Queue: 4 jobs
Job 1
Amino acid sequence: MARYAERAENLARILDVNETFARDVQGANDWLPILKLHRDEEAFFERYKEATSENVVRFYIIDAENPNSIIYSVRAARENARSIRHLISLETWAQLNVSYNLVASLTARNLHLSELSRLCGRIKEGVQLHSGIVTGTLYRDQVWSFYRLGVFTELADQITRLVDIKYHALLPAWQDVGSPVDIAQWNALLRSVSAYHGYRRVFPARMTPTTVAGFILLSPRFPRSLTHCVSNIEATLDELLTNEDLRDISFPRDSLETLKELTSRSPERVVTAGLHEYLDEAQVALLDFGSQVAATFFYAD
Amino acid sequence: MTDRSKGLFANYDREEFFCEMFGGSAHPASHTDSIRDRMRTMKVPTLQRRAQSCDRELYNLGITFTVYSDRDAIDRVLPFDVIPRVLSRDDWSHIERGCVQRVAALNRFLHDIYHDQHILNDGTVPAELVVRNANFRPEMKGLDLPHGTYVSICGIDLVRDGQGAFRVLEDNARTPSGVSYVVENRHLMMRSFPDLTGNVGLRQVSNYGMHLQAALAEIAPASAADPKVVLMSPGVFNSAYFEHVFLAREMGVPLVEGRDLVVEDDRVFMKTTGGLRPVDVIYRRVDDAFLDPEQFNPKSMLGVRGLFRAYRAGRVSLANAVGTGVADDKAVYAYMPRIVRYYLDEEPILQNVDTHLCREPEGLAYTLAHLDELVVKPVGESGGYGIVVGPKATRAELEECRARVEQDPANYISQPVIDLSVCPTLIDGSIEPRHVDLRPYIVTGKESWVLPGGLTRVALRKGSLVVNSSQGGGTKDTWVLE
């Protein structure tokens, strides 16, 4: 439930920012990075001719056949919630229903570019309201811990993917760091994850690939950074394991140790040694961690 | 001619039926005086507006049953009518005593047929009716249950005839559903009609979960000091999944599926994040046939291997017990008055509807001769399926029914058409009479407790006598007055 909800919010963020960004630079190409980010080019071009704004927006918001769409994620979040309805609060379920109905009622007519930003805002707020309600009402037992593990694992996964693809897409522009196009792209990246303001406070004057990627991935104070997510995962896990009921459980910590080591590196070291390899390693470790949680606590094979 | 002093009910005509709000010609319903007073001044548009927001609320709160298509889960709201059905204190006390008596007889009957079979041996009930019944479980023979309680949760469907007398239409001794609507309907009414529900002296229904939990703990194996109860559901794809969630929450017990349970050395355990934890009582909403692939349907994916062995060993209790389906069979139903007298040595407090058994020559002859006046029901079906209402059937339908009855008489019973009582119901902007029934819920551990009220189902189609949700039925809040 947590992971799908966060995924929907992330999609809304990316579409919103890309729309704002594409307004400056004309041309259909500007929607391609979103397809690349989710490795969706193949699936997309099977059913759509061109990566126009209309098609991409449609693909990511209301196309129920696309497992990376908002409608798909919100529905999956709701179906997951249905299976744990006895554990979540009534308000949580009711609000998820309302959110789902909002998204499910959308048709192509609601997706006008002029309305997109407002729509993405509503979807984003829906998910934020969801996390607020969960935080405010969920009984603080193991369910809460597992909810938090889900949230932070998903956020960590998203941020590494986002940086990975953006960084690649932006590589050719490195030669003219500081050019208007380049700055605009970093700007968009920072804004898409609500990091712009925080970044500015730390680096009022500079905007380089290393500082931006470093901030987004490694700032312990930025709530969506890998570092922040990993430290929350560790704290949540440690608290969970103090539970009397779980005294017989032994949890393999190797993937978590890998993640902790990764987040202890400096931005310069990360970029020099190869950002893509770094992000790859982080994603593998996150995947391992997820499987270990499933195998240890949920009898998954 | 309209009677202005009747306000909201000015155009209401109960026709020739007994009305839950206005009574019959011989029984003025004085117990609803104060409620009618309050409703009189309400306007139809007000009722409609509140009804709409009730519908929306039911949907948003997910008080729904779910229909699955290939692509999607479609949540449907069971139609809810905002005009309550009100029972007087005297009527209720009669129903309550009658239901407790009937459940006591059902439990004694089940104990007997799975032990010495006195009632079959002396011919009071034909043996083959029981032992050849598809729901008779020979595996249950000789197993002693705590307090002899086979039917922990019973739903008894009652109708009210033209004279206002309550009669039993059928017993639901397997897994009666719908109780979640009783509680949720009440909560909905309290929120939407504070002006109607305040200070009228309603018996509360929201303690159902506590009573149920307590009763289930009472039927735990004697060895369990602090009984652990779980609710076992077939899973999210079951149309009653909402109710399973509701009951688990109201009882404060874990909701599990078959795959969450394992049996080791005849002991049932629940898989938890911290390892296996013992389970003493299972309120199972899974049919007998799917409970345990080792004992019953080997293809069942919903069950738990070895569960029946643990049950036989007395290490776990099931509610309801295995094999109760034989008691709510429509053919056995016809013998219920005799069953009550046989075990309790009392006259039945609640009467059956007169029933003709097509398995008996007289019954068959009578049924075939009066097909156009009778309601013909297959004995094994539920949910209102396969019922033919003589006076409303076409000639072709009657002939088809005749052929089916002649081919397999033992599978059919017939009953006279009962003029089910009506209740004022909001239909497309006017207040019209619609037929209702009543399903009280009886919870039994050591002793029986009856939830005050029960589920009132209403046939929303004009003239229809079939109240089942699968046949266009809705529900109403049921009020029992202090």
Job 2
Amino acid sequence: MRYVTPGTRLCFASEYEAGPGTYEREEYIYSSVVGIVQEFIPTVSTNTGEEKKQSKIITVSKEKHQSSIPDVGNIITGKVIRMTTREAVVSIMVVGNIPCKDDYQGIIRSQDVRATEKDKVKIIESYRLGDIVKAEVISLGDARSYYLSTAKNEYGVIYAQSVAGAMMVPISWQNMQCTKTKAVELRKCAKPEDLFSKNQ
Amino acid sequence: MSTQTYEAETFRKLQPQEYLRKFLLKEVRPDGRELKQFRQTTVNLGCISTTNGSSLVRIGNTTVVCGIKAEVSVPKQTSTKEGYLVPNVELSPMCSPKFKPGPPSEHAQVLSENINRLLKSASILDLNTLCIHEGSAVWVLYADIVCVNYDGNVFDACVIGLITALSNVKLPKATFAEEEGLVKATEELLIPLNLSRLPYPATFSIFDGQYLLVDPTEVEESVAHEVITIICDEAGQICTVWKVGGISCTPKHLEKCISIARERYIEIAAIVENEEKSNNLI
Amino acid sequence: MADRRRIQGPEVSVAPIILKSPNKIQLLDENLCRRNGRNLEDIRSIYLKTGLISQANGSAFIELSKTKIVCGVYGPRQTKIPAFSGKGNLNCEIKFAPFSCPKRRPPYRDSQEKELSQLIYEALTPSIRLDLLPKSTIDIYITILENDGTASCLAAAITCASVAVADAGIEMLDLVPACSASYINGQIFMDSDLIEEKRESGSLVLSYMPSLKEITHILQSGEVELNLTSQAIEQCTDSCSKIYSIMIDSLLLPIQNMK
């Protein structure tokens, strides 16, 4: 295994294509992170069935992970920290599977809560303060926040406390029931799939 | 890293209290310690040569550096022989993501104020011994404590750092030249301070009103809001009991804390003595 | 004005006048050897370690005999600046511990710290791939625990910060070692300490990306002849290459030991 640091010259740019963790400058490819050098040949078969010849890609897999930052298409987990009639503000705590060291701010606008009947959505009937939600990043948003969406079935509230302070379980895509008082509260639930289950 | 550890990390981030509770049910703590186990503590004396006395203290990952510099000033009108001892704690944004640049945060102010109160109420150093010339010149000892890594229980580290740095202080031989109104000092530093007692602290956190966590880390401190600090001296006398935040604690807990604090005193005293010995050999 | 947020001492205090022995310290002996046994072109031995601050994303500690500097890197994290930016934002802050210099420094930020922060920012910015980090900020905080020569301190701080950034896993073009030199009586003293620095007529601090052979920052002060400057630049780039290998070792050793 070959360990490298930023700035290590890896190879000629004519031999390989620069993948993640590397960059090309003049006729060479250099590493841009601390990690292990890896190379692979992408196998992309075109729709005509012919194997298209691809050049080899060289990458450096990060040995030290950078604190994760959200990007469009990422799945995030976060906590609802503020609500208005038009949007819910979410503190993004986990991107993909990697927790962020510092929280980022995201917004779920009312039109992004669910896929159908967007005009009838009421934020208060979808989320409450303190709920843990799973959502998708749909744009880098404005200067302050990322825009998030829970329109897909698998996104929405994954953990919530009822008014009585007990945990709630989802009973349909828009209802959750308190485990203690059996009271039903409105939420936009994520399709149940236990986040912390070990049998995945 | 495997996905398993990622999941644990995710769980910790989203449900910190639940995460800690799961560990405590099995009588261990997230870093593998027992409930009443302190983290490894090291003391390094005289590490900064621009000071009159210095000490670097590490408790687990928590690291603080205390440096003491002596300057000369005029004593107060009311107490013409008394010198000054000025402790300040600095929690820079470097040591934790919680702190922002700028003037001392409330947290830092509380730490400084508590340490100042400890110095005064436990009369660790007789300020009259800092006199150079009565009514005209006294020593001012600036004790600045810089936190390098904030991983919980910083107060303990600060107090140990301050006390050991004070015992490391060497002052030059100084004379007051009356006609010029100046203090002249020798280049070599020789005179140690005369400390009347050497108190060391022990800090505890109470989680869920029942688990007594000794020497909490940053993760534990952020979810267990009840903190008890007990400072005792070489005779086992208690100098300070300090309890902040949260709900009440039972007398039984308090008694247990005090007995652990006394054991901890012996442990720290041994560490410091070892370091002093090896320091003198060099 | 009294600062209520700190414990206050007396209003005025001064360092005592030190009675020094009258003989002047000789910087060089007859064999052109310096006080601590090194030659004119030698730098002090360096101790460099990463990962000291567990709370930070990346950190490093550097020790050049007496000089001691710690650096913590936080980020990339959400930027506090209100305007949208497709590029990351770099923020550098350097702080002298109050006890780090022969004279006590007041605890609040002074103009020298602001100047040094700006210099470090300029030296590091070309090396970091900020275009990959939209809407984010990288904060670099540096504390000088002991200062033994300001120019060499600045150079060591740049070296240390660059390693800490790499330790944080942030993508960069190259590591940036930095080195300083002093001009004293028409001679070049590499990596001068505080006593040598007091006698200098000028100094040079150079930051260099050895792999790309590019200079990111150069700062010359004082009055020097042109050919002496070009000689100093050459010597500094040579020393930077030596420091570079120490930086690489400090980053790779912890990983190799883990496996």
Job 3
Amino acid sequence: MSAVLKPATEAELRGMIAAAQAPLEIIGSGARRHIGHPVQAAAVLDMSGFTGVIAYEPEELILDVHAGTRLSEIESMLGRRGQQLAFEPPDFSRLLGAAQSGSIGGLVASNLSGPRRIKAGAVRDHILGVHGVTGAGNVFKAGARVVKNVTGYDMPKLLTGSWGTLAALTSVILKVLPAPETEETVALSGLDDAQAVEAMSLAMQSACEVSAAACIPGEAVYLRLEGIAPSVAYRRDRLGKALRRPIEVMAAKSSAAKWQAIRDGAMFAENPGHPLWRVSVAPSDAPGMIRMLKDKLDIRYLLDWAGGLVWLEVPPSHDASAALVRSAFTAGHATLIRAPETTRAAIDVFQPQAPALAALTGRVKDAFDPRRILNPGRMYRGL
Amino acid sequence: MLTMPVPDESAIRRRAGIAAALRRIVPGEGVIEAPVEMRAFETDGLTAYRQMPLVVVLPETVAQVSAILRYAYENAIKVVPRGAGTSLSGGALPLADGILLGMARFNRVLEIDYANRCAVVQPGVTNLAITRAVEHKGFYYAPDPSSQIACTIGGNVAENSGGVHCLKYGLTANNVLGIEMVLVTGEVIRLGGKHLDSEGYDLLGVMTGSEGLLGVVTEVTVRILQKPETARAVLVGFPTSEDAGRCVADVISAGIIPGGMEMMDRPAIHAAEDFVHAGYPLDVEALLIVELDGPQAEVDHLIGRVSGIARANNSSTLRISTSEEERMLFWAGRKAAFPAVGRISPDYLCMDGTIPRKRLPEVLQGMAELSRIHRLRVANVFHAGDGNLHPLILFDANDADELDRAEKFGADILRLCVKVGGVLTGEHGVGIEKRDLMPEMFSEQDLAQQMRVKCAFDDKGLLNPGKVFPTLHRCAELGRMHVKGGALPFPEIPRF
């Protein structure tokens, strides 16, 4: 078992990183620790000492919080003021066998967003600022506690989704938004994949402001409407007309439960031994991709983001059928979200990049972590 | 006046050879070197600064852009990328020793994909032209900078442009799905596409708003949205800016994110009303336009709630638009605010700080004091929802002392913004205008980290130097701040 370093202050953190002679694996709460290549580190850098809210100003729409703070605490706090993180953070604890939904720093590091991604954007669209220490041991900050800022490079976006390979974040500033007063879900059944994607596309092209669109094969297409009650009712009627198909309406409570299950990939929690992919493609490419894979593999899948996010569970194998999965689409990326450690060590967990882009990615890593101290290899080999 | 890096005399001496080399890459009329013809490129939207470029090149293909950059890289010649040249911060100001790389000929809409709600366009397409290309199907491109009729989408990506609707619909960064770009080495890469998010680092996020310092965009995929079903506006006058500021906070606290929420102060109200006669009240200190857009049922409901909040905050006048004409009239004054101020003053500087909204009254008060100190008038328009201030400083550029005072006044305003927890620029970019103020907001360490990112893209510092960063550093010098010995440590650790 590797040693654990648990800094309590930014100065301590800086000292630990600067003094490190061997790689460190950064852990917030460990909720997403098993996504990515296994990190071969001499020590764990435990960031859970950085907790607490620095500033929450609902009327300014900003939250400034230490990176180790639990997401669940943040969500309850925002909920009490009728606000939320609009990108709908997923909770993969059941899926990945973690104890809880994780820390806010881990969420930012992973840029994992839920069903509302198609309307509200991803984590990267809500990050306003970061404080942290780079792999070179440099303390830095970027961004500010305002919702609109173009001063200097957008470093907060660069850090979002960098999986701890560039810097250890001590605090993050996020844009928070009002939570909808109510929601409803319109369900359509009896559609095949192509018809489902077409229906979702039609819904997204309407002025009905659909906030989530998913399809569970063999079950239904779900379209969520959120907002004030008179608006939701009005849009439900408009959407029904636009779709020209019989619809069922799910009231707020069952709607919320359904979207939580979709957000968390709950249907895949029952097969923990099966590799699970999240594939991001243009929505219209999804049906063809699934058709091709179905011919060759026994898959279970779910379409979210109007078809743009394909959750794909494949039969257990040493390589998680990576080559086949990645041959099934031309533009987009497939990330292996769950697989045994040996598989994650053997194959590309993140979509391989073209040579010029991979080289640039390496130079960006060098700009933060030239010694390859932080989470080396977690995203790409040698990075 | 701001100063630019000392030009490289050897590049200037090689000018004829450089032009000839560029002509071999872009034949015909794509290379401009006659001073009279280059005059059109000597400035951008920050017209107080002018500089003739070394030579202008207007490529038409990605291969040409790649060849130009590779040539510049191999010969260590600086390059300034340019869209329509509407930057208000001097981002496209030419360099005496630099090639001006104009992207205006990349002006085609390549694909409109309604099923996936996106459009693929060349970078020289104007912002408004994207909306024009899709509006017959009820779609539009959301970010709407005030220069949208002229500014290009490539320039929007470079500056991460905003507009009056970005509180609800986001800035350019939130509406661009992908780009194709050319690195300074000539390598062509793609970031994003019609799909969402990035497989690796969010380099698209870094490129957006990088002000031409990291690469040249050659294709852009943008999100298009269905137009809101309807829009209505409320025009509210307040006896004090505190009342108006509290009204804005209360609207947001009530869970309402308006499509637009704009504030004007007394000088801006008077200038606008004199110019367009929008029917603005003249006996108020602050005027607020709150626009609600979306489904009819929602807009009708929310307009009532916003009106109630305004009355509860001591509004002295309140009008709700009852027709599209009336809504447009409410906006007419705000949209004409800049030319209206241009009528009452020979010149004006448009500033662009963002502040935490709750600090607005003290910032306005501070600005009034600065106005007395610098003996220049100021009018304020304000994207109130997101805290983005546009103070317009009135001056006469023919009076060198006034220009000097105007710039000092502007710098003092931005310092004040930073002091209250805000930032130097909300949507116009740093360019040359705010370059020397960067240390007000960032430590040396913070700036060094940004410059290391610059080095990852542009190790010779050839792309748009003299912009954004107050000092130029060699990349090796930045690297020495952390690399020790140069060798990779810990060879004993097994690798994949």
Job 4
Amino acid sequence: MSRRIVSVSILVAAMLLIIAACAPAAPAPAPTQAPAAQPTAAQPTTAPAEPTTAPAEATTAPQATTAPEATVAPTATALPTAEAGRKQIRWFVGLGTGTDPAQVKVQEEIVKKFNESQDKIQLVLEVVAYDAARDALATQLASGNPPDIVGPVGVSGAEAFHGQWLDLAPFIDKTNYDLTQFDKGAVDFYKVGGEGQIGLPFAIFPSALFYQRDMFDEADLNYPPHKYGEKYKWKDGTEEEWTFDTLNKLAEKLTVDKNNKDASDSAFDTKNIVQYGYEPQYQDLRAVGSYMGAGTFVAPDGKTAQIPPQWAEAWKWVYDGVWKEHIIANGPTRESQEFGQGNPFNSGKVATALTHLWYTCCVTDAGGNWDVAVVPSHNGKTTANFNADTFRVLKASKNPDEAFTVLTYLLGDGSLDLLKAYGGMPGRTADQAAFFKSLDETWKQKVDWQVFIDGIQYADNPSFEGYMPNYNESFDLANVFLNKLYTTDGLDMDKEIAQFQKDLQAVFDKKATP
Amino acid sequence: MSSFKELFSIFHLKPNARREALYGLAFISLWLIGFLLFTLFPMIATLVFTFTNINLAQEQSLQFVGLQNYLAMFKDSQLHNALGVTFKYALIALPIGLALPLIVALLLNNKYLRAKGFFRIMFYLPFVIPFVAGIFAWGGLLNPEQGWINQGLEALGVQNPPGWLNDPTWVYPGLVILGLWGIGSAVIINLAGLQGIPTELYDAAKVDGAGWWATLWNVTLPMMSPVLFYALVLGVVGVFQYFLVPLVITDGTGRPGGATMFFNLYLYKTFFTFQNMSYGAAQAWVLFLLILALTVFLFWSSKYWVHYAGDTR
């Protein structure tokens, strides 16, 4: 009898185990895990999260909203049952920033506040780890079970789901939503031909040239200009247009070997460089190109691969900077611990770096005396490329009106708390001063934040992160190409660029089933 | 087949034996359910996927596409490159991966070696270090600019030390060196095999006047052939599934110049970067069949070179 009881107990226990294993997970955040690696390029090191892309490569920029490294992304939580009389709106987080446990807490509070503020909509938060988010969202869409709102997400993350975002224009008209609270340029940034107004400004990340004041002082150089249109003043009093050529000259003076010779010195030892002059910090191939002029890989017909000539120039400029002038760290060096493992400017051994405002996330080890200057011009035109994160509504949303209501709450009442948690500059102009004041509390060296605000006028249009056919594979190919530039000496760049265009066309031409 | 027979024969057993058999089944039922749900069913599902057009990155209706995913592999130059990379690496890594643990085991088994326990621990110790941590450490050591290995070579007067993981010529030796970090487990297996060889065989060889080499060739290696066969089969399977090191070291880019785009890494990218599930599934099945074919070939060939004690063949 007792044997039977024992065996029955074991069977019951086994069944309970199976049932427990199959039951939905409790809505607790998962234990912390390794930093999210980006699905793109290159280097073994994982970069701190960027506004929306997780830095993967040494050269891929963290996106506008990436979670800081070493934080763990909570996994998706089980959906609560819809409350009677309320329409359920699902808010999907994970394509960009927002997965850090501290950020999740803020988002949960926003959800709670929203749900308490009305009785028509039940807002539900779904947080998916960055590494898994694209697959998770794609699977939800493919299975007909999509969320309603997605974000924060940058252009690049959103373009991975090209054509699936709801045009908000009819909802803006219907509700008389006030667009004048935002800079017009920022609103137009989300107005995409053929797709409509597929977003509204939330967090923006203009670019600028980060530089180390001490290194300029040591090299007896004046600081780069802080106003767009200003010329660079050399110590001898001569002035020069602030262009990439000027930046190149400065970078040569700021690149130093172990014998304290700079790169413009004929005795410069290229094998023993201890300080580099310049770094395109966390900039992907398209971003590197777009500083010399806005462009896109896609011809107007939407299917032909093209290389904007100014992008090709920019790549050659960087390539020569790495391999001929040695003012930029090459692949192995940038990966080394000594030079920041993919984040060279943060190593405190690089004098200047073009990057975005979100980089304040990742510059904690670079010393406390950096500042920012304006982006140099090229061929008489300045392009300060631009990252932006926002929330988007999926076309597949079953309740678009309610989703728009939630969206306006996230961009409105909830925005300040969220922006603080995400570290984003408010798209709403009235909130920007307070945002920079809060940055001053962290960075006490009196950074000239106005440079970022002024840079908005020089945003790239079209955005470098815009649509490409077969987006994920095209993006991957671009990252592989950039990595090749950083790691391979002696390339014939014209030939390589022509081959890259050919390869890109092949990827554009791929159909869903090869 | 026989296990199916045994399963159904339960019903013809006497009550006590049947109860015992049912308890056994109950105890393994969790594993069985797990195997069915998480291994067999997904395998069958991926086989079905290979005949469809599931691509999460592109909006399209689900369609049956026949053998298109398989035929596409003939035209996919990246896949051909990945296959070539995998074979190239296998040709370098497999012989070294088989020979070196055996050589180390022979040394550790040598009667003249002192502090055997210490050396065994030293060789095994790296194996217990988490693999990814080891990869990062080796990535740093092999860094051509800042790595200790090249700094050491330069200190020894080597003018242009290898580019290791950054150079298409040196990347495979670099990966092999990195892989040798974890040979501790294979050394232990070889050591166990060596210690299992009956000493009478060595005594007989000695009586017959065999020297060290003749003893190794005529006694040790034949007696070790089952162990080497086991290591070879696992090695072949492992090398075709080689994935983690290139993923971590190159972040999946295949650098330098595609030299580390192994088949399994390309497969992974097809699935999870390009989100082309059907094509990825087809690649996975091709990989499975390839490994299966090689394994079957190895088993077939074993009758010519693997000797089991007491075997009359």
